[in-house]
Amino acid sequence: MLTVIAFVAALALLIAVHEYGHYRVAVACGVKVLRFSIGFGRTLWRWQPKGSPTQFAISAIPLGGYVKMLDEREAPVGPEERHLAFNTQPLRSRAAIVAAGPFANLLLAVLLYAAVGWIGVEEPQPYLSSPVPGSLAQGAGLRGGELVQSTAIAGEEPEPVRSFEDLRWALTQSALNGQDLRLTVQPEPGAPSRDVVLPLGGLQAAEVDAALARRIGIIGPFTRPVIGEVMADGAAARAGLRQGDLVQSIGGRAIVDSTQLREAIRASVQPDGRPLAQAWSVERDGRILTLQVEPAVQREGGRSVGRISAYVGAPPERVLVRRGPLEGLWGGVVRTWEVSSLTLRMMGRMVIGEASVRNLSGPLTIADYAGKSASLGLTQYLVFLALISVSLGVLNLLPLPVLDGGHLMYYLWEAVTGRGVSDVWLERLQRGGLAVLLLMMFIALFNDVTRLFG
Fold first, then answer.
1. pLDDT at 207 over 60
2. pTM
3. Which contacts qualify for 327-332: CB closer than 8 Å, 24 or more apart?
4. Which of 45, 49, 318, 361 could be bridged to 365 by S-S, CB 3.0 to 4.6 A?
5. How would residue 210 be classed by pLDDT, with cut points 50, 70 and 90?
6. Element (H or E) spanning 283, and its range?
């Protein structure tokens, strides 16, 4: 139920803001707006303020909305109202009205990101976990436990790192831009800081996924190698492991954090696919115990990995990240720009085949994330809303004829040539744009079904 409520609330807000952008600028430009609708299909509720020409409505299918303006191309307009019609407005006014919807979504994202900064959010501290063996992070000399103080791309000023999420964002951007990233880290409290360069410039970052994080080698914040909830009749329970056990070593190899512990468990498989039993040294109530643990073996991604049927790792240490009024607002602008740029780059890579279309998500995945983010608290839900609002704004600015960006493309043609697109070409472009949009929707829905039910 929470997922449905969170999804419907998100759609209603984002659609209302988008359409209100069109409506507000249309009214400011002197255009008569006949109807403002959230949703399509059968009308559930309608209201027309006294003295206003606009009827406001909520309709049954909440997957979009529209602003219907007086327009000679849709119905006859009397001479006395011709100056109020959309099609009679100057080019700059028509372009402003069309662009206002997507830009309203981008403005909403700025405010939502700013609100998160003002409210403050608990995020993991930027302590590094053990790097994945053979990864770029390990090759750069990182060992785990370091505190990341700042990041910098070559030629730019260092940016302070307040939390692990700041670090994750810097890594993602650098990988997608093909730029090396310099980390300033403190190996341990009181020790002098040192610089470490991650060579991300030559990384083939076709997709932002778990595989990319593993190639970089930084997959999570530092957490203590503690055993959490133990499932009955699992490998951990059979070996005598208990919740709260602190793992010291496995097979004589010291374990310093939960990332290293998970990797050791996954690797507890012999070459012939049988489980590899090893001696675990654990601390329990101040005593050191030695337990023989034999994991279960499961197939994952075409290879065999070990599993012990227990939660691994303590929660990471967290820090409250909160920003002042101006800093939070500017942070909202910067994050909206960065997410918009990242979204466009990913779309461009999908078009030229450098990124997989599996990155496209549809309504099922959005609904799933809406429910999950809402369950985590207000700030996480606001971040989700901001991300979707950016995506909606950027998508609508794409030069597809059925979208706002397509209409702006027509107006650009009109500005350059001095004449509008002919009716014949307009119909052809609309059909082509609709076909592309339907294809994108089909791929996104297929990805949803595969991701959620596959």
1. no
2. 0.76
3. 327/117, 328/114, 328/115, 328/117, 328/118, 329/110, 329/114, 331/113, 331/114, 331/117, 332/109, 332/110, 332/111, 332/112, 332/113, 332/114, 332/115, 332/117
4. 361
5. low
6. strand 278-284
201: tokens are 């410039």
Burial 85-115 (b: 16+ CB within 10 A, else e): bbebbeeebbbbbbbbbbbbbbbbbbbbbbb
362-to-236, 402, 450, 454 alpha-carbon distances in Å: 38, 18, 11, 15
Residue 70 predicted with pLDDT over 90: yes
Instruction: Find tokens 């207000």 and name the residue.
Output: 378
Q: What is the pLDDT of residue 453?
A: 62
pLDDT average, residue stretch 345-370: 67
Q: How many CA atoms lie within 13 A of 249 on its CB side?
A: 9
Q: Quick: pLDDT tens for 2-57.
A: 777 888 888 889 999 999 999 999 999 999 999 999 988 888 899 999 889 999 99
Give 197 or 204, the one with higher predicted confidence.
197
Max CA separation in the chain (angstroms): 92
Q: Which helix (H) or strand (E) holds 137?
A: helix 136-139
Which residues touch 53 (CB under 8 Å, ≥6 apart)? 32, 33, 34
294 is an active site residue = no
